[in-house]
């Protein structure tokens, strides 16, 4: 671990032998590191200690990517014909996706689209990029590229994928970057770059693609025209490349252009639209209401003085405070799953008619603490998974009604009535407490 303000090493964390790639969860709480020991180590950033070792992971784990909502980690293998899926709540391998290629080696890098729906895996020994549907966990496309692909990155708007074509069939260095259109999953152009391109990174605003090569150059590409704008001599044998995240800003320029990371106070109402990512971090605050009609809205230790209404896109609330109500409704099937952890909602939380999963609290408090709800907590008519763990509904009712998706209600405390009626797939934990359980409801199961 390096302190970036002082550029000094502040911690060295022992892990399994032969570490490979690593990735950090969106909330910065955990780091997932692949190793040659056939395992993935999980580091807690709060303590800089390994809190879990996931073993076995098929083949030799190599590339690693985290889903935008932080719920899943995708691991490639340099020696197996598959991608492993890790659930970050349990730190276990929950699925293995066969890639269906004849050569079982060289699966190097992996990237996820910003909406979390597609996974792109480079298959270096096969000259292919494999596309996986992240919801169904099936291969939906196998895209041929000119030379053994290595690094891969997706543009912030999710429209294009850039792939470093590292080696040709005879181990002669490749000289191209392939550009894939995500709508058609086809290569739309190739760009000539320095020999043996390895890593790919894209600036947060999507204006530049940076490609490293082990011939000792960084190539800068303009993705609007797919042309090289600069080639910078760096060092012999450059591999990884990373770009600093979006800079922290004080507050958005207006209530309708919330697209950035903010730590100041915005006076008034905020609207988050499709294509925008609005992230307020501590001690940031919004004095008015928030309406999300798409895009992504995140509160990390920040607060909203009014109410929050979400009808599309994705969201994450961590250690946040909402002084009004929180209403989440009509999010369609296929959106990435969402999470509410350690958050206080003064005037009630409603999760209704959604086709995407949500985790409201967690059975692992160190990962996702339960929430405090001042009014009523209602989850009704949802078709996707809903997890209600360790929430404290201080003075209202908890109602879980006519949900057809998988539903877990575990270890909640309810100040008034607990009612579970008409649910298709309900699991009740034995640690729920309420002043009154509605007679005849499923809550007594």
Overview in brief:
With 445 residues, this protein is mostly beta strands. The chain is 0% helix and 51% strand. The protein is built from no helices and 48 strands.
Structure, described:
The chain has a 16-stranded parallel β-sheet that branches. Strands 23-24-27-30-33-36-39-42-45-47 form a 10-stranded parallel β-sheet, with no helix packed on it. The chain has a 4-stranded antiparallel β-sheet with strand order 3-4-5-6, with no helix packed on it. The radius of gyration is 23 Å and the shape is globular. The protein has 445 residues and is an all-beta fold. The mean pLDDT is 88. The protein contains no helices and 48 strands.
Outline the secondary-structure elements.
Blueprint: E1 2-3, E2 8-9, E3 19-24, E4 30-35, E5 40-44, E6 49-54, E7 61-66, E8 72-77, E9 82-87, E10 92-98, E11 107-112, E12 118-123, E13 128-133, E14 138-144, E15 148-154, E16 160-167, E17 173-181, E18 186-192, E19 197-202, E20 209-213, E21 217-222, E22 227-233, E23 248-249, E24 260-262, E25 265-266, E26 270-272, E27 277-281, E28 285-286, E29 290-292, E30 296-300, E31 303-304, E32 308-310, E33 314-318, E34 321-322, E35 326-329, E36 338-341, E37 344-345, E38 349-352, E39 358-360, E40 372-373, E41 377-380, E42 386-389, E43 392-393, E44 398-401, E45 406-410, E46 413-421, E47 425-428, E48 433-437
């Amino acid at each position: 671990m390096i302190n970036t303000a002082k550029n000094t090493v502040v911690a060295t964390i022992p892990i399994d032998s032969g570490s490979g790639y690593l990735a950090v969860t969106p909330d910065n709480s955990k780091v997932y590191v692949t190793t040659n020991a056939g395992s993935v180590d999980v580091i807690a950033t709060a303590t800089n200690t390994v809190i879990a070792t996931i073993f076995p992971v098929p083949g030799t784990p190599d590339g690693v990517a985290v889903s935008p909502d932080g719920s899943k980690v995708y691991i490639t293998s340099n020696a197996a014909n598959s991608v492993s899926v890790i659930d970050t709540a349990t730190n276990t391998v929950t699925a293995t996706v066969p890639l269906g290629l004849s050569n079982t080696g060289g699966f190097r890098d992996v990237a996820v689209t910003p909406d979390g729906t597609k996974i792109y895996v480079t298959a270096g020994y096969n000259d292919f990029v494999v596309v996986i549907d992240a919801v169904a966990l099936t291969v939906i496309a196998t895209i041929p590229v000119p030379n053994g692909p290595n690094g891969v990155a997706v543009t912030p708007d999710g429209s294009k994928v850039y792939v470093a074509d590292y080696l040709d069939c005879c181990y002669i260095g490749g000289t191209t970057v392939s550009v894939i259109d995500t709508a058609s999953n086809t290569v739309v152009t190739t760009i000539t770059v320095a020999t043996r391109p390895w890593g790919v990174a894209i600036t947060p605003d999507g204006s530049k693609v940076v490609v490293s090569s082990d011939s000792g150059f960084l190539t800068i590409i303009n993705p609007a025209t797919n042309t090289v704008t600069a080639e910078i001599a760096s060092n012999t044998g450059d591999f990884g490349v990373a770009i600093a995240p979006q800079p922290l800003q004080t507050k958005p320029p207006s209530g309708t252009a919330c697209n950035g990371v903010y730590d100041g106070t915005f006076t008034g109402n905020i609207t988050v639209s499709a294509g925008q990512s609005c992230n307020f971090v501590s001690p940031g605050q919004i004095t008015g209401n928030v309406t999300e009609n798409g895009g992504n809205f995140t509160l990390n230790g920040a607060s909203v003085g009014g109410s929050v209404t979400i009808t599309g896109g994705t969201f994450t609330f961590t250690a946040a405070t909402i002084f009004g109500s929180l209403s989440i409704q009509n999010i369609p099937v296929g959106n990435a799953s969402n999470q509410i952890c350690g958050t206080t909602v003064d005037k009630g939380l409603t999760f209704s008619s959604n086709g995407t999963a949500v985790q409201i609290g967690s059975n692992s408090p160190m990962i996702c603490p339960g929430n405090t709800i001042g009014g009523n907590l209602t989850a009704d008519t949802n078709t996707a998974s809903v997890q209600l763990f360790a929430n404290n509904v201080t003075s209202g009712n908890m109602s879980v009604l006519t949900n057809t998706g998988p539903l877990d209600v575990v270890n909640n405390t309810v100040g008034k009535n607990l009612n579970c009626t008409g649910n298709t797939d309900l699991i009740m934990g034995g640690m729920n407490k309420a002043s009154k359980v509605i007679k005849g409801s499923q809550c007594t199961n």
